[in-house]
Amino acid sequence: MSQSFDIAVIGATGTVGEALVQLLEERDFPVSTLHLLASGDSAGQSVPFRGKNLRVRALDGFDFSQVRLAFFAGSPAVTREYASRASEAGCSFIDLSGALSLDDAIRVVPEVNADVLAGLKAPYRLTSPCAPVVALATALAPLHPLLDLRQVCAMACLSVSTLGREGVNELARQTAELLNARPLEPRFFDRQAAFNLLAQVGEVDSEGHALLEKRMVSELKQMFRISALDVSATCVQAPVFFGDSLSVMLRSEKVIDLQAICAALDDAQGIERVESPDYPTVVGDAVGQDVVYVGRLRCGLGNPHELNLWIASDNVRKGAALNAVQLGELLIKDYLSKILT
Amino acid sequence: MSQSFDIAVIGATGTVGEALVQLLEERDFPVSTLHLLASGDSAGQSVPFRGKNLRVRALDGFDFSQVRLAFFAGSPAVTREYASRASEAGCSFIDLSGALSLDDAIRVVPEVNADVLAGLKAPYRLTSPCAPVVALATALAPLHPLLDLRQVCAMACLSVSTLGREGVNELARQTAELLNARPLEPRFFDRQAAFNLLAQVGEVDSEGHALLEKRMVSELKQMFRISALDVSATCVQAPVFFGDSLSVMLRSEKVIDLQAICAALDDAQGIERVESPDYPTVVGDAVGQDVVYVGRLRCGLGNPHELNLWIASDNVRKGAALNAVQLGELLIKDYLSKILT
């Protein structure tokens, strides 16, 4: 990649936005000018990039025609307000908020469905799927050709960083209060989250489904292009700071060949398989790493059509910022750079 | 219950054994003489019961013909060594260790399959199922007649008290070390368990299944008398002190009637249903309570044959000690008292 591009990062001061800027630097992303933008009070702060402190400017009034690619790492409301302005100015974007419909901004994980980009035209409107889907899709991609996938049942235990810095701070505060035997007054969560599991993440609709659960089902179906794929998803809030853990049960029409499954995972990009009786966890394995960890591979008890697995992934990196940056790299290398030349 | 019986509790100094003795007192269990027994070093300790401190005696050499009913709340090895001695002495027993096969000591939860007792003869050899099964079976029992149950997929997030007092102490110690930014040296667990999720509880066999997962599958099948019931189970170790949380996905041949399901749960014994958007958790709801909490009832996304639910239950009480005591009460009232008269 000899060309470099002017890029914008919206929501640069949040957990994911900060990780994104750090990854742009770490991975030597071909940036000429990096525009850091935020709405509201965050404008005016500085974020380090390539040895300088870049000032975060107000998103309002930003001229998107100055940049070729924008990362939307702010709230869904910000994406909803500014994404069309970016497109209209000819700026491709990668949204991380999930605000846009499947049709409006297609979900892409490079290891899973990079080929869909060939059917699209600039300016690109893409979404990095929600973190549990990035992890699950990355693990499923190499298995998919070996399975005649009929059913996916996933329980995702999400870390408090899913809810941003406030979630992290509140788990730390609650834990300290409890260990010091002080009375607990929940603030950010509606109850004790420390040493507890909350059965839902975010609000639920009138039928009881949380937004993230609906995203898991619809985004997986889109990415694997199986509209009839039978997916059940539950998201639970775990007292864990960083990293998502998923327990997954798959059913295949074909009998599972566990050796072939393991070999396919070992050969796959972006995956680290952990052999039983060891298993991966978010703390110690996945957090801070770019790969998705997969373990506890086993067939069903007496059911050779069932495959169970456990996934541990860094929700802020591979689950969000890293996937978006990888997608940006792919977009620049195979698409945006070719438009210029 | 006007009669009272001489009873033995084996493993009286463990987490479950202590809860059991406390429940015998709280529930005014018809005990004449209570024999507290333990193997190894625990003999010689005292446990409070009805205002006195009862001395725990050595199990070795105990004459089981002195008692009509024994609770085995010690390790599986202790049950394996002494259960047959109890039976041979005419003493009925309720095992809480899960050491004995399904055929050797039938699994019973009073709310689920009390009727099986009618087909048995004294001395009774019974097992209180593992805690996640007690919780799950209690929740399923009232639903079963409304569903044509085809599939059960359960992910159980178990508290560290599943592993006894050492598990509880180690989670507290690890958490304090981490909050005080001291280097962590795991002792009881093989890695950091605080602020982390461990993908398996206990050792796994050569095929990757943990003993508790195998118990969940086989015990559920026995209790619902559906040998072809399609059950998938995963047990995960959560950084929670007390209480088990289960995320459960059910499939029924019939379309789910969610209103009827809710009504059946509301009418059922031993269950507290929590209406969405609220939901139950172990801390604040289930722990210390005798009932099993059920919430997050919802159909599948676009699948009216799917029912999802969340269960929170006190693993030491209803999951173990309380269920065993309730089973003892049932046994005495309907069976053992009739043998005497």
UniProtKB/TrEMBL annotation, chains A, B:
Single Gene Ontology MF annotation: NAD binding
InterPro entries on file: NAD(P)-bd_dom_sf, Semialdehyde_DH_NAD-bd, Semialdhyde_DH_dimer_dom
SUPFAM superfamilies in the record: Glyceraldehyde-3-phosphate dehydrogenase-like, C-terminal domain (SSF55347), NAD(P)-binding Rossmann-fold domains (SSF51735)
NCBIfam families, per the entry: PRK05671.1, PRK14874.1
Similarity-based family: Belongs to the aspartate-semialdehyde dehydrogenase family.
Domain of life, per lineage: Bacteria
Chain ranges of the Semialdehyde dehydrogenase NAD-binding domain: 6-120
Matches recorded under Gene3D superfamilies: Dihydrodipicolinate Reductase, domain 2, NAD(P)-binding Rossmann-like Domain
Stated name of the protein: Aspartate-semialdehyde dehydrogenase
GO BP term (any one): amino acid biosynthetic process
